[in-house]
Amino acid sequence: MLLVLAVFAQVLVAQEVTVQGRVTYQADGSPLPGVTIMVAGTNTGVLSGADGTFSIPARMGATLRFSFIGMTPVEVTVTSSTVNVTLADAPTDLDEIVVIGYGVQKKALVTGANLNVKGDEIAELNTSTAMEALQGIATGISVTRNSGAPGAGTKATIRGLGTIGNSAPLYIVDGVAVGNIDYLNASDIESIDVLKDAASSAIYGSRAANGVILVTTKKGEKGSAPVITYDYYYGVQNIYKKLPALNAQEYMFIMDEGRVNDGLAPNDWASILKNNSYINSNFPGNLGTQLGEEVWNRLQAGWEGTDWVEEMSMKNAPVQNHSLNIMGSAKDVTYALGVSYYDQKGILGGDLMGAGYKRFTARLNSEMVLIKGSGHDILTIGENFTYNNNKNKWIGTGNIYWNDLHNALVTNPLLPAYWDKSPDPNGFTPTLEGISLGQTNPLAMLFYNRSNYHWPTNNTITGNAYINIEPIKNLRVRSSFGINSWFGGNRLWAPTYKLSTQYNNANDRVEQTMYQGINITLTNTVSYEFNISDHKISVLAGNEILDNVLNANVGGSKSNSIFGTPDYAYLDNVVAESLAGIGTWGADWAAQGGGLLSYYGRVSYN
Q1: Strand partners, 111
Q2: Best exposed site among 250, 305, 472, 596 by fewest CB in 10 Å?
Q3: Distance from C-alpha of 473 to C-alpha of 145, rounded to nearest angstrom
Q4: How much is the CA Rg of the chain, to the nearest whole Å?
């Protein structure tokens, strides 16, 4: 045995040395105390002394990493017992221009709690919305999805909840206030600036009590050649982990155990399964009894029942995004054009009723210099406009009374999802009323009551047109006319179905709705920058008018359509016997007037 161990045992001895050296500053050669020196891949580390010297044990060939705040880290491979290192200042972005309220400023001069995120960082994360990308890269901001459904949108909270009311921040896109930025494709964004404290956002008044998110979309650069970029990604989605549910045998055992604990006899499952009076009464052929007998026979043969979440789920639900951007400039003109398409299928209901979210976005930004002066542009005009069209088919994600996942989790597994003898035109198995009157086929409820026969169309147009006048250098007068418009409609058909006493719809229903809203914003600012010796002063004054011009919706609903098919489900194709069969509604929430008038100013000194 000793001989075998001697043959197979190997001892690798690596030469370990004490590495000594000195760390100095590249700019003037002075020693750097407090530099962290770590042996890569280990927990061994030391700090350089007051004279920049250090001593650390390491093996030959190991990697030493030298790091110090504000300087570029250096890695050195150990080839001798002496290692001397020079550290240089890390490049900074303090000269970078960031967006502030009604203007821009060098990052080094910003004293408030601001955050700047580049559009490239957002686009490379491949999220459905730009706000979701901020979850892992923006400090001080909590971003959560409203639900797991595609197109559900996001909710952002800056520095925690500051009110028991609406805690949403103010969103500004290219100078226009909007409700959210979920309509933008990540490839359209140049940068996102977040104003997190009162000092930074004060210029926007009380609207900025919960912070401000400023979005700048991509624009062309002067003197740049045309550039065309195309981005595409494709992925699949699956449920990572499902809640464990009882199979048929486990369900029957638990129900019997509950009865026994109450001093009752176990269930007579063979009789209970056949007790389906609604189906027997409403359809020929004694179908209710046949259904119960078939289910009982399948259970006797070892059938484990229906996994409703599995039946409702789409395997490898696809998600894809296409983005095309064209940017460039010509003589005195810059332009940026972007077109994108996003399509995400829902994991739940994606196969059954087409649950999912589709978004088309088109963007056009351009600027033209009309009059040029000596060293500055006297007259400049431009515009930034984004059009969005989206369609969303959703499942119920509300409380327990409007939640399809909840229905799938609580419905008994003894009911088959489909039955070849089902009287339902889509093959859904009717309710086993002997087990529970309050539980029916959750797939049928999803198919009939949600949005299988639901055709929504939502549109937004957001942007502004502006004129800049600079009569003398650094004196700038700017006027901007912005619009935030939303419009669309929906057509819905609720078909007839007969599943049980509680779950049936004797008359089909047609519904059509339309809505439209317009907010306009007129912004005027005057700014002037000047120097007095080494003192730089910047002054800004302005006013803004926000008018809620229109916010209307109108709709109608009728039962008993003429054709009884989704293709002809329009209000014109429904005949109502009386006015009681017609439902109409409509309102204009802007009819009483609404808007904001503000005056503001700012003085900056450096």
Answers
A1: none
A2: 472
A3: 47
A4: 34
What SS3 class is residue 442?
Answer: helix
Closest to 321 (Cα-Cα) out of 403, 242, 232, 243: 232
Q: In whole angstroms, give the CA distance from residue 229 to residue 327.
A: 9
Residue 23: strand, helix, or coil: strand
State the Cα–Cα distance between residues 411 and 498, nearest whole angstrom: 18
Mean pLDDT of all residues belonging to the chain: 88
Predicted local distance difference test score (pLDDT) of residue 261 = 95
The whole-number pLDDT of residue 10 equals 36
- Please, which residues bridge with residue 363 across strands? 338, 386
The pLDDT confidence band at residue 422, using thresholds 50, 70 and 90, is: very high
Which DSSP letter does residue 411 get?
S
Region 487-495: what's the mean pLDDT?
93
By the 8 A CB rule, do 327 and 218 touch? yes
Which residues lie closer than 8 Å to 387 by C-beta, 6 or more apart?
361, 362, 363, 459, 460, 461
pLDDT tens column, 330-365: 889 999 999 999 999 999 999 898 899 999 999 999
Helical (H) or strand (E) element with 173: strand 170-173
What's the CA gap between 392 and 146, in Å, rounded? 14
By DSSP bridging, strand 497-498 and strand 535-559 are unpaired
What number of helices (H) and strands (E) belong to the chain?
11, 29
Tokens 């808007």 belong to: 595
pLDDT band at 482 (very low <50, low <70, confident <90, very high): very high
Give the span between the Cα atoms of 148 and 319, in whole angstroms. Answer: 14
Residue 19: what are its φ and ψ, rounded to 5°?
Answer: -90, 125
- How many other β-carbons are positioned within 10 Å of the β-carbon of residue 51? 11
Give the span between the Cα atoms of 442 and 449, in whole angstroms: 10
Output the six-digit token pair for 59.
Answer: 């093996």
Dihedral angle at the C-alpha atoms of 414, 416, 419, 422, nearest 10 degrees?
60
Q: What is d(CA 589, CA 516) in angstroms, rounded to the nearest whole number? A: 11
> Which residue would you say has higher pLDDT here, 6 or 380?
380
Q: How many residues does the chain have?
A: 606
> C-alpha angle with apex 12: 8 to 13, nearest 5 degrees?
150
122 sits in which H/E element: helix 119-123
pLDDT at residue 539, rounded to an integer: 93
Angstrom CA distances, 440 to 245, 269, 415, 446, 500, stand at 17, 18, 8, 11, 8
Sort strands 176-178 and 16-25 into parallel, antiparallel or unpaired: unpaired
Whether the CB-CB separation of 442 and 413 falls below 8 Å is answered with no
Residue 201 has pLDDT above 60, yes or no: yes
Q: Could you give the C-alpha distances from 434 to 218, 275, 292, 305, 518, in angstroms and in order?
A: 63, 5, 9, 16, 54
Q: What is the mean pLDDT of residues 172-189?
A: 90
Tokens of 585: 């509604």
Q: How far apart are alpha carbons 237 and 264 in whole angstroms?
A: 46
